[in-house]
Structure formats: C-alpha cells, structure tokens
Design brief:
The structure is a homotrimer of 206-residue chains. With 206 residues, the first copy, chain A, is mainly α. Chain A has one domain: Phosphate transport system protein phou homolog 2, domain 2 (Methane Monooxygenase Hydroxylase, Chain G, domain 1), CATH 1.20.58.220. Chain A is built from six helices and no strands. In chain A, helix 1 packs parallel to helix 3, helix 1 runs antiparallel to helix 4 and helix 4 runs parallel beside helix 6. The N and C termini of chain A lie far apart (41 Å). Chains B and C meet through helix 2, helix 3 and helix 6 of B and helix 5 and helix 6 of C. Chains A, B, C: It comes from Jonesia denitrificans (strain ATCC 14870 / DSM 20603 / BCRC 15368 / CIP 55.134 / JCM 11481 / NBRC 15587 / NCTC 10816 / Prevot 55134) (Listeria denitrificans).
C-alpha cells in the first residue's frame, strides 16, 4: 500500500473551475429556453435548476474545505468571496429562466437573445480564466474583456428597454419583460463583479 | 469609592445583540401593519420608524466605540460591517412599512404575510446568534437555517409575483404591490448577508 | 539634466480628487438636462458620457498605478475600492441622464430636481473631502453630512413615488419616470457608500 502524500486532486482551483463550468451549462440552457415553445420551457427550466443545485453543491464544498484546510493558496476570504460571486452569476441566470417560465411570456423581444449571448461569452471566459488563478498569469485579458462586454451589454439593455417602452402596448406585459431583461442585466453585472474580484486578487498577490 | 477596572458592560457583543433585538421588534410591527386597517397603519408605521431610529443609535454607538477602543474582540471592519449589515435589515423593513402607508394599498395579497413571517423568523435567529459570536460556537446552524429560509422565500416571492401578474388587473396597483413585495424580499436578502458575514468571520477566526 | 527623485505629482490622493471632480461636472450637467428642451437633452447627455469616460480613465490610471507601486499610502484594496465606488456614483448619474434621453420623457416632475440638487451637494462634499484623506483630518463632518443628505433624499424619494402614483395616469409613463427617480436614488446611495468607505478607512488608519 502506498501512502498518499500528494495533496488531493480537487484543489480550490479545480473546484472554482468546476463551479464556473456549471455557469457555462446554465448560460447554454438559458439560450435554449428563449428559443423553446411555452410547453418546452418548463423542462429546460428544470435543467437550469439542476445546474444551479450543482453549483450550490460545489460552493458548499469550497466553504467546507476552507474550513478544514490550514494553508490556502489564496486568502481565505478571497476564495470564499470568489466562490460566492460565481454562485451569484448562476442564481441570476436561474432567476431569469424561472421568470420566463412563471410569467408565461408570449413573445420575448429578439434582442433578449443578444443579452444571453453576452452571458454565454462571459461564462466561457470565466471558466477559461479560473485555472489561470493558480499562476496568476494571463488574467488581465480576461477581466478587460468582461468589463468591455458588460459595458456593451449595459448600453444595449437600456436601448432595449426604451424600445420596448415604445413597442409593447400592454403595461403588464411590459412589466414582465422588463423584469426578465433586468435580471439578465444583473447576471451580466455579477460576471463583472467576479472579474473585478479576480483583478483585485491578482493586484494583491502580485 | 471603588475603582472600576473591569471593562464596561456594554461590549461590542452586547451592542450587536441589542441592535438585533430592534430587528425583532421591527419585524413584529411589520406583521401588525399587514393586518391593520388603513387608518391604523400610520401609527404602526411610526412605531417602526422609532425602532429604526433606535437601531441607528446603536449602530452609531458601535462605530464611535470602535473609534475609541484600542483592542477589539474581532477585526474592526468585521464589527463595523456586521453593525452596518444589521442596520440594513432594519432599513429595508422600515422601507416596506413606509411604502404600505404611503401607497395607501387597498388590498395586500395574503401571501405577503408569509414573507413577513420569514423576516420574523430571521430576526429571531439573528438575535439569538449574536451572543454566540463571543465564543464563535453553535453558529453554523444559524447561517444554514437563514440560507434555507432565504432560498425558500426567494422561490415563494417569485411565485407570488407571477400570481399577482395573473390576478391584479390594474397595472398601477400591481406596481405598488410589486414594490412592497420586492422590498420585503430585499430585507430577507439583507438577513442572508448578515449570516454570510458571520460565516466568513467564523471561518477567519477559527 | 536633473534626476527626478521626488515621487510623481499625481499621487493617489490627487487622482481620487480628480476622479471626484468629474462627479461635480456630471451632477451639474444632470441639473442642466432636467431644465433642457427635449431637443437639447441629447447634446447634454453626450457631455455627461464624456465626463463618465473621463472618470473611467482616472479609475483605470489608479488601478494601473496600484499595480506598479510598491508602497501605497493606504491599503491597496482600500484605494481600489474607493476608486471603484466613486466610479459607481458617476455610472448611476450617467445612467439617469441616458434614461431621460432614451425615454423621451414629456414631463419630469418638479421634485426630481430636488434629487439632483442632493447629488450636486454630495459631489461637492465628496470632492472637498478627498484631499483630506492625506492627513485623515476633518473627515467626520463629511460623512455625517452625506449620511444626513442620503437619509433625507431617501424619504423624499419615497414620497415623490407615492405622489407620482396618485398623479400620473398613464402606467407606461409612470414606469419610465419611476425608473429615472430610482436611478437617481441609487446614485445618492452610491455617494453614501463612498462616505461609509471613507469612515471605515479612517477608523482603521486612526
């Protein structure tokens, strides 16, 4: 029998990367729900909830492991903060999906899918960035690009709202769509928060 | 005459517990305002404002005392952060009460009282948890339970909104109720932030 | 040729003061846009965007300089946090201006200009406070006054909303104005966050 003296494979970096991978799945499903018929939305919404539960589980594993690990590769509260910020991204995407199901929206403005494309790109960039935390290298492109995407999304979202105010006649319908659009924008903000957190950590560790 | 060499009774832990006790009062009054006639709401709203002022006073006492104390039992900014997060819970509950008074709501959907019950439970749990900060013991049950309550409240609040969209015909009435419901949800979020902060502090101090 | 051995003139304190000076410009332009005809709003909105870009540039300079400076006069993440919080004030003011342009609002309730006056006062107080960070003196009046202004603004904003709900008949018009009013309130909150951050820093450094 061999002693295991190397650390466990699932390090904090691996766990953060795993957490981010659930965001990629969630954002893909969010794209699917937009294109789906009202009848199919519920089933896709359920899959997003499963992705959210999976993300929750990883977050709790990270927190528990932080609690029982003596030496951590980054500051304890940076790891905890990052895990919780990644989890927030998932929560807002899941909320948007849930609202689409619950509000039984007839028509979703086509530009909403541009918002979801941004979230998909943010998820991918974030998942690619996590492994680089280990060496703190090549991260500046990531946060610059996320900030650029979020700025772009922010302008697009305001124009979309203004356009909806002109086009949608039924105020109640308008309120529903507005809330979906704003929840998607909050999800994009959440990705920006992760990127800013990574920037701050890199600053501190450099 | 005896010299007083022991520290003052009102330690930071006592002050945080006192602050949390105002949240218990506030959440009870919030329950009362829901059941009250429109004529009685104003008087109850005034009592909630008083509870909010009392919470403000304790928060300022904590900040002043932090400023004049050399050795603190927890990190200075953790105590400041916790006081300010507790104060936020109160502010959101007071805001919800104020909106109920100002908007002269005719009918408040019955499920809103479920939201307030959650806030009452959160207040009690938070007030019970504060004294345990001293020894950092038995706190994990508290934050797990608050997180569970908040998740539950979050799902319930979305379903409530969807139901209101189906039932309330007048869009302006709908906007008013929606804002009250969302402010109550923000208050529940604020309790979760306190719990997460306690978890982070416990993590760091352990 | 003389060697330059003194540090560069643009210290972090100067940069933070410069950042705050853009807030003063932004809040002045926000006042102008309220009084302007619909035709003139776009041009003023563009000037606010320019002020926002200028603020962004200073923020990035601060972040870059933090990255390349070995000894900083305050904690690295306090400077980063403060820069980012000041930048948030600008972003919310710019967002409010952008919404006023995009929503082509016919009439803006007169009390909205009270909200903007508060933002102008907050900007001035913040710009005056920044140079005092160097010696950490005379700052308590600043944060007490900002907190007082924000509390006042918060009450005023709720009353304004309640009044609008009574007066504005068209729900879509109401939704537009409500969003402008709430964005201005978020800007006031952002100034309070800066003040609270300054208070926490002063507490820590004292």
């Amino acid at each position: 029998m061999r002693l295991r003296i190397t650390p466990r494979d699932t390090s904090f970096f691996d766990l953060l990367a795993e957490l981010a991978s659930h965001l990629v799945v969630g954002s893909q499903l969010l794209g699917e729900i937009l294109g789906a018929s009202k009848a199919d939305r519920k089933a896709i919404g359920k899959k997003i909830s499963e992705a959210e539960n999976a993300a929750d589980d990883v977050t709790h594993t990270i927190m528990r492991q932080l609690n029982s690990t003596f030496v951590t590769p980054l500051d304890r509260d940076d790891i905890a903060g990052l895990a919780s910020a990644l989890d927030d991204c998932m929560d807002h995407m899941e909320e948007a999906a849930d609202l689409i199901v619950l509000y039984k929206l007839e028509e979703i403005p086509r530009k909403v899918s541009d918002q979801v494309s941004v979230l998909q790109r943010c998820s991918e960039l974030t998942a690619e960035a996590m492994p680089h935390l280990r060496q703190m290298n090549d991260l500046s492109e990531y946060w610059v690009e996320i900030n650029r995407l979020e700025n772009q999304a922010d302008k697009a979202h305001r124009k979309l709202l203004a356009q909806m105010f002109d086009e949608v006649q039924d105020p109640i319908q308008l309120m529903k769509i507005k809330e979906v659009v704003e929840t998607l924008e909050t999800a994009a903000d959440a990705f920006e928060k992760v990127a800013n957190m990574v920037e701050t950590i890199a600053l501190k560790e450099s």
